Amino acid sequence: MTEHLGSKAGTLSALLGLIAILVYGKTMRRSAALWLLLAAIAVQVVSWTFGYYHHPQWIADNPQIDRLAKLFIFTAVAWWLGGSTRNTLWLWMLALLGFLIAVLITGPGEWLRGLEGERVGFGIRNDQHGSMLFGVAFLGLVIFARRLIMPAGRWVIWRSAVWGVVMAVCATAIAIGQTRAVWLALLIALPFAGLIMLAWAHWRGTGKRILRPLLVGLALGSLLALCAAWLFGGVLIERVTAESSVIHQLAHGNLDAVPYSSIGIRIHSWVAAFEWISERPLLGWGGEGRSLVIAHTPWLPEMVKQNFGHLHNFFIEVWVAYGLLGVAVIAALAFWIGRGTWLAWRGGAMPNDVALFGAAFFVYWIIVNQFESYDSFWTGVYVHNLVVGGLVTHYWRWRYAKPEEKL
Protein backbone atom coordinates (compact mmCIF):
# COMPACT_ATOMS: atom_id res chain seq x y z
CA MET A 1 0.00 0.00 0.00
CA THR A 2 2.76 2.42 0.99
CA GLU A 3 4.72 1.64 -2.19
CA HIS A 4 1.58 2.17 -4.27
CA LEU A 5 0.91 5.58 -2.70
CA GLY A 6 4.57 6.52 -3.02
CA SER A 7 4.52 5.76 -6.75
CA LYS A 8 1.44 7.93 -7.30
CA ALA A 9 2.89 10.73 -5.16
CA GLY A 10 6.13 10.63 -7.13
CA THR A 11 4.29 10.88 -10.43
CA LEU A 12 2.17 13.77 -9.11
CA SER A 13 5.29 15.58 -7.85
CA ALA A 14 6.99 15.18 -11.22
CA LEU A 15 3.96 16.58 -13.04
CA LEU A 16 3.71 19.55 -10.67
CA GLY A 17 7.42 20.21 -11.12
CA LEU A 18 7.01 20.16 -14.90
CA ILE A 19 4.10 22.60 -14.68
CA ALA A 20 6.23 24.89 -12.49
CA ILE A 21 9.00 24.87 -15.11
CA LEU A 22 6.51 25.69 -17.86
CA VAL A 23 5.09 28.60 -15.86
CA TYR A 24 8.19 30.06 -14.22
CA GLY A 25 11.21 28.67 -16.08
CA LYS A 26 11.84 31.46 -18.57
CA THR A 27 15.21 30.15 -19.75
CA MET A 28 14.22 26.49 -19.59
CA ARG A 29 11.16 27.10 -21.76
CA ARG A 30 13.50 28.06 -24.60
CA SER A 31 15.62 24.92 -24.28
CA ALA A 32 15.13 21.88 -26.49
CA ALA A 33 15.76 19.76 -23.38
CA LEU A 34 12.33 20.69 -22.05
CA TRP A 35 10.61 19.79 -25.29
CA LEU A 36 12.43 16.50 -25.43
CA LEU A 37 11.30 15.82 -21.86
CA LEU A 38 7.72 16.60 -22.86
CA ALA A 39 8.11 14.26 -25.84
CA ALA A 40 9.42 11.49 -23.56
CA ILE A 41 6.45 11.94 -21.23
CA ALA A 42 4.01 12.00 -24.15
CA VAL A 43 5.47 8.81 -25.65
CA GLN A 44 5.12 6.97 -22.34
CA VAL A 45 1.55 8.19 -21.83
CA VAL A 46 0.54 7.28 -25.40
CA SER A 47 2.11 3.81 -25.14
CA TRP A 48 0.41 3.22 -21.80
CA THR A 49 -2.99 4.47 -23.10
CA PHE A 50 -3.03 2.26 -26.19
CA GLY A 51 -1.70 -0.65 -24.17
CA TYR A 52 -4.52 -0.20 -21.67
CA TYR A 53 -6.99 -1.03 -24.46
CA HIS A 54 -4.83 -3.65 -26.22
CA HIS A 55 -3.46 -5.69 -23.27
CA PRO A 56 -4.90 -4.25 -20.02
CA GLN A 57 -3.87 -7.34 -18.02
CA TRP A 58 -0.20 -6.42 -18.57
CA ILE A 59 -0.40 -2.66 -18.05
CA ALA A 60 0.57 -0.83 -14.85
CA ASP A 61 -2.01 1.37 -13.13
CA ASN A 62 -0.15 4.53 -14.22
CA PRO A 63 2.11 5.47 -17.17
CA GLN A 64 5.30 5.39 -15.01
CA ILE A 65 6.69 8.44 -16.77
CA ASP A 66 9.82 8.34 -14.63
CA ARG A 67 11.21 5.49 -16.76
CA LEU A 68 12.45 7.97 -19.38
CA ALA A 69 11.96 11.24 -17.51
CA LYS A 70 14.72 10.38 -15.02
CA LEU A 71 17.24 10.67 -17.86
CA PHE A 72 16.47 14.41 -17.88
CA ILE A 73 17.60 15.09 -14.31
CA PHE A 74 20.73 16.48 -15.95
CA THR A 75 18.79 19.70 -16.58
CA ALA A 76 18.78 20.41 -12.84
CA VAL A 77 22.49 19.49 -12.59
CA ALA A 78 23.37 21.76 -15.51
CA TRP A 79 21.37 24.66 -14.06
CA TRP A 80 23.00 24.21 -10.63
CA LEU A 81 26.51 24.18 -12.12
CA GLY A 82 25.83 27.57 -13.65
CA GLY A 83 27.96 27.08 -16.77
CA SER A 84 31.15 26.85 -14.72
CA THR A 85 33.96 24.50 -15.78
CA ARG A 86 35.40 24.74 -12.29
CA ASN A 87 32.12 23.67 -10.69
CA THR A 88 31.78 20.83 -13.19
CA LEU A 89 35.23 19.43 -12.55
CA TRP A 90 34.78 19.74 -8.78
CA LEU A 91 31.46 17.89 -8.99
CA TRP A 92 32.99 15.08 -11.04
CA MET A 93 36.00 14.86 -8.75
CA LEU A 94 33.86 14.75 -5.60
CA ALA A 95 31.66 12.07 -7.19
CA LEU A 96 34.79 10.01 -7.93
CA LEU A 97 36.14 10.57 -4.41
CA GLY A 98 32.86 9.54 -2.78
CA PHE A 99 32.65 6.44 -4.95
CA LEU A 100 36.21 5.36 -4.15
CA ILE A 101 35.73 5.90 -0.41
CA ALA A 102 32.51 3.89 -0.49
CA VAL A 103 33.95 0.86 -2.28
CA LEU A 104 37.22 0.89 -0.34
CA ILE A 105 35.56 1.13 3.08
CA THR A 106 32.49 -1.06 2.64
CA GLY A 107 34.01 -3.92 0.70
CA PRO A 108 37.60 -4.84 1.65
CA GLY A 109 36.67 -8.52 1.48
CA GLU A 110 35.53 -8.04 -2.11
CA TRP A 111 38.98 -6.82 -3.12
CA LEU A 112 40.67 -9.81 -1.51
CA ARG A 113 38.35 -12.26 -3.25
CA GLY A 114 38.88 -10.45 -6.54
CA LEU A 115 42.64 -10.63 -6.23
CA GLU A 116 42.28 -14.37 -5.66
CA GLY A 117 40.51 -14.74 -9.01
CA GLU A 118 36.83 -14.47 -8.03
CA ARG A 119 34.57 -12.09 -9.93
CA VAL A 120 33.35 -9.29 -7.66
CA GLY A 121 30.92 -6.38 -7.89
CA PHE A 122 31.98 -4.27 -4.87
CA GLY A 123 28.49 -4.51 -3.39
CA ILE A 124 26.93 -2.35 -6.13
CA ARG A 125 23.80 -4.03 -7.50
CA ASN A 126 25.72 -6.74 -9.40
CA ASP A 127 29.18 -7.39 -10.80
CA GLN A 128 28.62 -5.40 -13.98
CA HIS A 129 27.54 -2.13 -12.38
CA GLY A 130 30.61 -1.75 -10.21
CA SER A 131 32.84 -2.39 -13.21
CA MET A 132 30.95 0.18 -15.26
CA LEU A 133 31.48 2.87 -12.61
CA PHE A 134 35.20 2.11 -12.41
CA GLY A 135 35.37 2.22 -16.20
CA VAL A 136 33.95 5.76 -16.25
CA ALA A 137 36.43 6.76 -13.53
CA PHE A 138 39.34 5.28 -15.48
CA LEU A 139 38.26 7.06 -18.65
CA GLY A 140 38.10 10.39 -16.84
CA LEU A 141 41.47 9.91 -15.14
CA VAL A 142 43.14 9.24 -18.49
CA ILE A 143 41.60 12.17 -20.33
CA PHE A 144 42.06 14.69 -17.50
CA ALA A 145 45.56 13.43 -16.65
CA ARG A 146 47.29 16.50 -18.05
CA ARG A 147 45.06 18.84 -16.05
CA LEU A 148 45.68 16.81 -12.90
CA ILE A 149 49.43 16.22 -13.02
CA MET A 150 51.03 18.52 -15.60
CA PRO A 151 50.70 21.99 -13.97
CA ALA A 152 54.03 22.88 -12.35
CA GLY A 153 54.20 23.57 -8.65
CA ARG A 154 55.38 22.26 -5.34
CA TRP A 155 52.59 19.68 -5.22
CA VAL A 156 53.21 18.16 -8.66
CA ILE A 157 54.93 15.05 -7.25
CA TRP A 158 52.10 14.44 -4.80
CA ARG A 159 49.44 15.03 -7.46
CA SER A 160 51.19 12.58 -9.77
CA ALA A 161 51.49 10.00 -6.99
CA VAL A 162 47.80 10.27 -6.06
CA TRP A 163 46.78 10.08 -9.73
CA GLY A 164 48.93 6.97 -10.20
CA VAL A 165 47.47 5.24 -7.13
CA VAL A 166 43.88 5.99 -8.14
CA MET A 167 44.61 4.81 -11.68
CA ALA A 168 46.02 1.56 -10.30
CA VAL A 169 42.96 1.08 -8.07
CA CYS A 170 40.57 1.62 -10.99
CA ALA A 171 42.57 -0.64 -13.31
CA THR A 172 42.61 -3.39 -10.68
CA ALA A 173 38.87 -3.03 -10.09
CA ILE A 174 38.17 -3.25 -13.83
CA ALA A 175 40.27 -6.41 -14.05
CA ILE A 176 38.73 -8.21 -11.07
CA GLY A 177 35.23 -7.03 -12.01
CA GLN A 178 35.62 -9.26 -15.09
CA THR A 179 33.01 -7.40 -17.14
CA ARG A 180 33.90 -7.93 -20.78
CA ALA A 181 31.64 -5.15 -22.06
CA VAL A 182 33.59 -2.62 -19.97
CA TRP A 183 36.89 -3.95 -21.31
CA LEU A 184 35.57 -3.68 -24.86
CA ALA A 185 34.21 -0.18 -24.31
CA LEU A 186 37.51 1.10 -22.91
CA LEU A 187 39.51 -0.58 -25.69
CA ILE A 188 37.43 1.39 -28.21
CA ALA A 189 36.77 4.65 -26.35
CA LEU A 190 40.39 5.37 -25.37
CA PRO A 191 41.89 4.93 -28.88
CA PHE A 192 38.94 6.94 -30.22
CA ALA A 193 39.91 9.79 -27.88
CA GLY A 194 43.54 9.47 -29.02
CA LEU A 195 42.52 9.71 -32.68
CA ILE A 196 40.49 12.85 -31.95
CA MET A 197 43.52 14.40 -30.24
CA LEU A 198 45.75 13.58 -33.21
CA ALA A 199 43.22 14.91 -35.73
CA TRP A 200 42.79 18.13 -33.78
CA ALA A 201 46.55 18.58 -33.34
CA HIS A 202 47.12 17.98 -37.06
CA TRP A 203 44.47 20.54 -37.94
CA ARG A 204 46.02 23.10 -35.59
CA GLY A 205 49.54 22.28 -36.71
CA THR A 206 50.59 21.30 -33.18
CA GLY A 207 51.21 17.62 -33.78
CA LYS A 208 54.69 17.67 -32.20
CA ARG A 209 53.33 19.17 -28.99
CA ILE A 210 50.63 16.52 -28.64
CA LEU A 211 52.91 13.63 -29.58
CA ARG A 212 54.74 13.51 -26.25
CA PRO A 213 51.58 13.25 -24.05
CA LEU A 214 50.22 10.55 -26.36
CA LEU A 215 53.45 8.57 -26.21
CA VAL A 216 53.50 8.87 -22.43
CA GLY A 217 49.89 7.72 -22.30
CA LEU A 218 50.65 4.81 -24.62
CA ALA A 219 53.60 3.79 -22.46
CA LEU A 220 51.50 3.92 -19.28
CA GLY A 221 48.71 1.99 -20.98
CA SER A 222 51.16 -0.68 -22.11
CA LEU A 223 52.59 -0.88 -18.60
CA LEU A 224 49.10 -1.32 -17.13
CA ALA A 225 48.32 -4.00 -19.71
CA LEU A 226 51.52 -5.89 -18.85
CA CYS A 227 50.76 -5.65 -15.12
CA ALA A 228 47.21 -6.89 -15.72
CA ALA A 229 48.50 -9.79 -17.81
CA TRP A 230 51.02 -10.70 -15.11
CA LEU A 231 48.59 -10.45 -12.18
CA PHE A 232 45.33 -11.60 -13.79
CA GLY A 233 46.39 -13.29 -17.00
CA GLY A 234 44.64 -16.57 -16.32
CA VAL A 235 41.38 -14.89 -15.28
CA LEU A 236 41.41 -12.51 -18.25
CA ILE A 237 42.03 -15.28 -20.75
CA GLU A 238 39.32 -17.44 -19.20
CA ARG A 239 36.76 -14.61 -19.37
CA VAL A 240 37.65 -13.71 -22.94
CA THR A 241 37.52 -17.30 -24.23
CA ALA A 242 34.57 -18.49 -22.10
CA GLU A 243 32.02 -17.66 -24.80
CA SER A 244 33.94 -19.08 -27.76
CA SER A 245 31.21 -21.66 -28.43
CA VAL A 246 28.58 -18.90 -28.55
CA ILE A 247 30.66 -16.90 -31.01
CA HIS A 248 31.18 -20.02 -33.14
CA GLN A 249 27.44 -20.72 -33.32
CA LEU A 250 26.63 -17.08 -34.09
CA ALA A 251 29.26 -16.97 -36.83
CA HIS A 252 27.56 -19.93 -38.49
CA GLY A 253 24.05 -18.53 -37.99
CA ASN A 254 22.99 -21.33 -35.63
CA LEU A 255 20.90 -19.30 -33.19
CA ASP A 256 19.01 -22.35 -31.94
CA ALA A 257 22.29 -23.99 -30.95
CA VAL A 258 23.54 -21.03 -28.91
CA PRO A 259 23.89 -22.21 -25.29
CA TYR A 260 22.29 -20.30 -22.41
CA SER A 261 25.55 -18.86 -21.15
CA SER A 262 26.10 -15.22 -20.16
CA ILE A 263 26.15 -13.97 -23.75
CA GLY A 264 23.81 -16.74 -24.91
CA ILE A 265 21.05 -15.60 -22.54
CA ARG A 266 21.40 -12.11 -23.94
CA ILE A 267 21.17 -13.35 -27.53
CA HIS A 268 18.08 -15.45 -26.88
CA SER A 269 16.33 -12.68 -24.92
CA TRP A 270 17.06 -10.21 -27.73
CA VAL A 271 15.58 -12.61 -30.28
CA ALA A 272 12.50 -12.91 -28.08
CA ALA A 273 12.34 -9.13 -27.74
CA PHE A 274 12.28 -8.62 -31.49
CA GLU A 275 9.39 -11.07 -31.76
CA TRP A 276 7.44 -8.78 -29.41
CA ILE A 277 8.67 -5.66 -31.19
CA SER A 278 7.40 -6.99 -34.52
CA GLU A 279 3.86 -7.11 -33.07
CA ARG A 280 3.87 -3.48 -31.81
CA PRO A 281 6.82 -1.73 -33.47
CA LEU A 282 5.53 1.84 -33.21
CA LEU A 283 4.05 2.14 -29.69
CA GLY A 284 5.54 -0.83 -27.83
CA TRP A 285 4.09 -2.69 -24.86
CA GLY A 286 4.33 -0.07 -22.14
CA GLY A 287 6.74 0.38 -19.26
CA GLU A 288 6.66 -3.31 -18.31
CA GLY A 289 7.66 -4.46 -21.78
CA ARG A 290 11.06 -5.84 -20.85
CA SER A 291 9.68 -8.07 -18.09
CA LEU A 292 6.81 -9.20 -20.35
CA VAL A 293 9.30 -10.52 -22.88
CA ILE A 294 11.06 -12.62 -20.25
CA ALA A 295 7.95 -13.83 -18.44
CA HIS A 296 5.65 -14.55 -21.40
CA THR A 297 7.89 -15.83 -24.20
CA PRO A 298 6.98 -19.53 -24.14
CA TRP A 299 10.23 -20.90 -25.53
CA LEU A 300 12.53 -19.20 -23.02
CA PRO A 301 13.58 -21.73 -20.36
CA GLU A 302 12.30 -21.47 -16.80
CA MET A 303 15.81 -20.75 -15.55
CA VAL A 304 15.86 -17.48 -17.51
CA LYS A 305 12.37 -16.50 -16.37
CA GLN A 306 13.20 -17.02 -12.71
CA ASN A 307 16.55 -15.23 -12.69
CA PHE A 308 16.16 -12.36 -15.13
CA GLY A 309 13.66 -9.55 -15.51
CA HIS A 310 15.32 -7.31 -18.09
CA LEU A 311 16.96 -7.61 -21.50
CA HIS A 312 20.55 -6.46 -20.82
CA ASN A 313 20.27 -3.85 -23.57
CA PHE A 314 18.86 -0.41 -22.86
CA PHE A 315 17.99 0.43 -26.46
CA ILE A 316 16.10 -2.81 -27.07
CA GLU A 317 14.25 -2.28 -23.79
CA VAL A 318 13.16 1.18 -24.92
CA TRP A 319 12.00 -0.23 -28.26
CA VAL A 320 10.00 -3.01 -26.61
CA ALA A 321 8.44 -0.63 -24.10
CA TYR A 322 7.75 2.47 -26.19
CA GLY A 323 8.26 1.44 -29.80
CA LEU A 324 9.98 3.49 -32.46
CA LEU A 325 8.59 6.66 -30.86
CA GLY A 326 10.61 5.96 -27.72
CA VAL A 327 13.74 5.12 -29.72
CA ALA A 328 13.31 8.39 -31.65
CA VAL A 329 13.17 10.40 -28.41
CA ILE A 330 16.36 8.78 -27.07
CA ALA A 331 18.11 9.29 -30.43
CA ALA A 332 17.01 12.95 -30.49
CA LEU A 333 18.30 13.43 -26.94
CA ALA A 334 21.69 11.93 -27.86
CA PHE A 335 21.89 14.12 -30.97
CA TRP A 336 20.99 17.26 -29.00
CA ILE A 337 23.63 16.55 -26.34
CA GLY A 338 26.27 15.81 -28.99
CA ARG A 339 25.42 18.91 -31.00
CA GLY A 340 25.40 21.06 -27.87
CA THR A 341 28.80 19.73 -26.84
CA TRP A 342 30.21 20.49 -30.28
CA LEU A 343 28.77 24.03 -30.35
CA ALA A 344 29.97 24.81 -26.83
CA TRP A 345 33.49 23.61 -27.65
CA ARG A 346 33.62 25.39 -30.99
CA GLY A 347 32.29 28.55 -29.36
CA GLY A 348 35.03 28.53 -26.73
CA ALA A 349 32.69 27.84 -23.79
CA MET A 350 33.96 24.29 -23.21
CA PRO A 351 37.62 23.33 -22.64
CA ASN A 352 39.24 20.82 -24.97
CA ASP A 353 39.60 18.06 -22.39
CA VAL A 354 35.97 18.37 -21.23
CA ALA A 355 34.78 18.05 -24.83
CA LEU A 356 37.14 15.10 -25.40
CA PHE A 357 35.80 13.37 -22.30
CA GLY A 358 32.26 13.94 -23.53
CA ALA A 359 33.05 12.32 -26.88
CA ALA A 360 34.88 9.36 -25.33
CA PHE A 361 32.15 8.88 -22.73
CA PHE A 362 29.52 8.80 -25.49
CA VAL A 363 31.34 5.91 -27.21
CA TYR A 364 31.85 4.11 -23.90
CA TRP A 365 28.23 4.59 -22.87
CA ILE A 366 26.78 3.38 -26.16
CA ILE A 367 28.84 0.18 -25.97
CA VAL A 368 28.22 -0.78 -22.33
CA ASN A 369 24.48 -0.17 -22.69
CA GLN A 370 24.40 -2.75 -25.49
CA PHE A 371 25.15 -5.49 -22.95
CA GLU A 372 23.52 -4.17 -19.77
CA SER A 373 20.67 -1.69 -19.50
CA TYR A 374 22.50 0.70 -17.15
CA ASP A 375 20.22 3.62 -18.02
CA SER A 376 17.33 1.62 -16.59
CA PHE A 377 18.95 1.43 -13.13
CA TRP A 378 20.08 3.99 -10.58
CA THR A 379 23.78 3.47 -11.32
CA GLY A 380 23.42 4.39 -14.98
CA VAL A 381 21.00 7.22 -14.28
CA TYR A 382 23.47 8.64 -11.75
CA VAL A 383 26.41 8.58 -14.17
CA HIS A 384 24.33 9.75 -17.13
CA ASN A 385 23.00 12.82 -15.36
CA LEU A 386 26.34 13.79 -13.77
CA VAL A 387 28.25 13.63 -17.05
CA VAL A 388 25.54 15.06 -19.28
CA GLY A 389 24.79 17.80 -16.76
CA GLY A 390 28.44 18.87 -16.90
CA LEU A 391 28.37 18.99 -20.70
CA VAL A 392 25.03 20.74 -21.03
CA THR A 393 25.91 23.47 -18.53
CA HIS A 394 28.70 24.58 -20.90
CA TYR A 395 26.31 24.51 -23.83
CA TRP A 396 23.82 26.64 -21.98
CA ARG A 397 26.57 29.09 -21.05
CA TRP A 398 27.35 29.44 -24.74
CA ARG A 399 23.71 29.35 -25.90
CA TYR A 400 22.40 32.02 -23.58
CA ALA A 401 25.49 34.25 -23.56
CA LYS A 402 25.13 37.79 -24.86
CA PRO A 403 25.87 38.09 -28.60
CA GLU A 404 29.11 40.02 -27.98
CA GLU A 405 30.29 37.26 -25.61
CA LYS A 406 30.00 34.67 -28.39
CA LEU A 407 32.38 36.54 -30.67
Automatic annotation (TrEMBL):
UniProt entry tagged with the keyword Transmembrane helix: yes
Subcellular location: Membrane
The keyword rRNA-binding appears for this protein: no
Transmembrane intervals: 6-25, 32-53, 65-82, 89-109, 129-149, 156-176, 182-203, 215-237, 319-342, 354-371, 377-396
Entries under InterPro entries matching the protein: O-antigen_ligase-rel_domated, WaaL-like
O-antigen ligase-related domain boundaries: 166-330
One Pfam family in the UniProt entry: Wzy_C
Primary site of residence: membrane
Keywords: Ligase, Membrane, Transmembrane, Transmembrane helix
Coiled-coil boundaries: none
GO MF annotation list: ligase activity
Organism domain of life: Bacteria
UniProt topology in membrane: Multi-pass membrane protein
Cellular component terms (Gene Ontology): membrane
PANTHER family according to UniProt: LIPOPOLYSACCHARIDE BIOSYNTHESIS PROTEIN PA4999-RELATED (PTHR37422:SF13), TEICHURONIC ACID BIOSYNTHESIS PROTEIN TUAE (PTHR37422)
Name of the protein: O-antigen ligase family protein
